[in-house]
């Protein structure tokens, strides 16, 4: 059985970060996140308008798997995250 989580990720890169280092970091972050999206574990990712932040939905086997995915993010050291466990709402007509 899998579990669903909403994760808000707020990013704060140092203003003085070397541009080449920043570009490399962002490229690695994109590749890593897309790998998990293709696997189906990172179900969706939404930009928070006007912020350097996103709201993502994960479908994972366990809390430990989510923890490992999040800790593997190249941007992890520059993020503040809020993790919310999700459950199907009884009024959702699209519920699986």
Key words describing this protein structure:
96 residues, alpha+beta, Alpha-Beta Plaits
Structure write-up:
It is built from two helices and four strands; from the N terminus they run βαββαβ. The chain is elongated and about 50 Å long. A four-stranded antiparallel sheet has the order 2-3-1-4. The chain has 96 residues and is of the alpha+beta class. The mean pLDDT is 96. It is 31% helix and 32% strand. A hairpin with a 5-residue loop joins strand 2 (42-47) and strand 3. The longest helix is centred in the N-terminal third of the chain and has 21 residues, at 19-39. It has a single domain (3-86), classed as Dimeric alpha+beta barrel (Alpha-Beta Plaits, 2-Layer Sandwich), CATH 3.30.70. It has helices spanning 19-39, 63-71; strands at residues 3-11, 42-47, 53-60, 79-86. Belongs to the muconolactone Delta-isomerase family. One of its GO terms (molecular function) is muconolactone delta-isomerase activity. Pathway: Aromatic compound metabolism; beta-ketoadipate pathway; 5-oxo-4,5-dihydro-2-furylacetate from catechol: step 3/3.
**Helix percent band:** 25-40%
Report the strand count. Answer: 4
Number of domains: 1
Strand numbers in spatial order across the main sheet: 2-3-1-4
Architecture per CATH nomenclature, i.e. the level-2 architecture: 2-Layer Sandwich
Structural class: alpha+beta
Give the terminus-to-terminus CA distance. 13 Å
Task: Tell me about the largest β-sheet.
Answer: 4 strands, antiparallel
Global geometry: elongated
CATH H-level name... which superfamily? Dimeric alpha+beta barrel
| Low-confidence parts | none
Proportion of residues in extended strands: 25-35%
Could you tell me the CATH topology label: Alpha-Beta Plaits
Along the chain, the helix and strand elements come as EHEEHE
């Amino acid at each position: 059985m899998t579990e669903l989580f909403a994760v808000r990720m707020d990013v704060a890169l140092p203003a003085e970060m070397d541009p080449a280092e920043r570009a490399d970091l962002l490229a690695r972050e994109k590749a890593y996140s897309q790998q998990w999206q293709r696997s189906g574990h990172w179900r969706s990712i939404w930009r928070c308008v006007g912020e350097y932040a996103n709201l993502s939905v994960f479908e994972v086997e366990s809390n430990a798997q989510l923890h490992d995915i999040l800790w593997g993010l190249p941007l992890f050291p520059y993020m503040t995250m809020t993790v919310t466990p999700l459950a199907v709402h009884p009024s959702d007509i699209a519920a699986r």
